[in-house]
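Structure (tokenized):
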């Protein structure tokens, strides 16, 4: 089993968990309280990055590359989500001249 890199040994694992939890909570608050579609997508990205940080930390401390492989797939999904999300936002702006998610009920038939 490989050793944890020396720089990671200097910072306790609890600090990484606390930082990741804080970033995730900021993302959740952004999703729940904001009405701007761009801010909501940025908040979702914050939540994904918090999970990536936590997976990378646990992967490094356990010397198991599985968590880093999951991070790679999460980043690929996040890139696809950004592409689709921005396309939806652009079409929403073209149709309604606003990116406020509160007026999306106009799209109902």
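Design, position by position:
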């Amino acid at each position: 089993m490989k050793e944890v890199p020396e720089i990671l040994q200097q910072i306790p694992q609890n600090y990484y968990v606390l930082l990741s939890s804080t970033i995730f909570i900021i993302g959740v608050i952004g999703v729940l309280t904001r009405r701007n579609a761009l801010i909501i997508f940025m908040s979702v990205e914050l939540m994904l990055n918090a999970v990536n940080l936590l997976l990378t930390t646990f992967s490094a401390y356990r010397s198991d590359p599985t968590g880093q492989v999951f991070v790679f797939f999460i980043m690929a999904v996040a890139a696809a989500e950004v592409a689709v999300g921005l396309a939806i936002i652009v079409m929403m702006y073209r149709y309604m001249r606003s990116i406020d998610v509160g007026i999306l009920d106009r799209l109902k038939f």
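Reviewer-requested clarification: Helices lie at 6-10, 13-33, 37-62, 66-96. The chain has a mean pLDDT of 83.
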